[in-house]
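Hey, resending since the last one bounced:
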Amino acid sequence: MAAQNFLILGATGNIGHFLTGMALDQGHQVTALVRDASRLGSRPGLTVVEGDPMDPAVLDQVMPGHDAVLSCLGIRREVQADPWSPVISPADLTGACARHTVAAMKRHGVPRVLAVSAAGIGDSRAVSSSEIMGIVDSSNIAISFRDLEEMEQVFAASGLDALMIRPVTLTGDAMGGEAKVLDAYLANSVISKQEVAAWMLGAAVRPAPYSAAAEMIGYA
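The structure tokens again:
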């Protein structure tokens, strides 16, 4: 497998820091666009750029020379584990970033983008647990879902080779099972953050264009 040059957005986040480490471990070059460079150490193959991923000028600056963009961005709450906790990110974070990312990718000829979304977004809602969707709709997770819907629509309409990764309920950090594409999101469907990162990296190096717009992944 030939080494690739990835631009990772959200490289210090729950999934992004696993993704960054795995990509470097496999010999890829990584540019990490982060708001706080002090949260990432120095490693061979890693270039850290401090900046706001919602700033079109910053994305235009860092985009040239990459084979793909891997986005692990997502809206955050004050207490991430509490669905009703106040949102502390811009409500249009991933949607706005997607629009600016697509524009920069097209200007600089970067052909492929992958982004972490969520099970229950788009056509996966129809096969998702009504219990889980009830929590989403009655809590501040709904803000994140509206933003992710916008993000997915932007990438789907871009004409780029785009794949949205839709993990089911995240549980812990450690590898916990064998992830696969799921047909349904059940109340007991789970996946670890590390496994999402591993799936995303594996998808990023697939040689063929993506045959589906999104993959819902989990253990059950």
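The longest strand covers residues 161-167.

Sorry for the duplicate.
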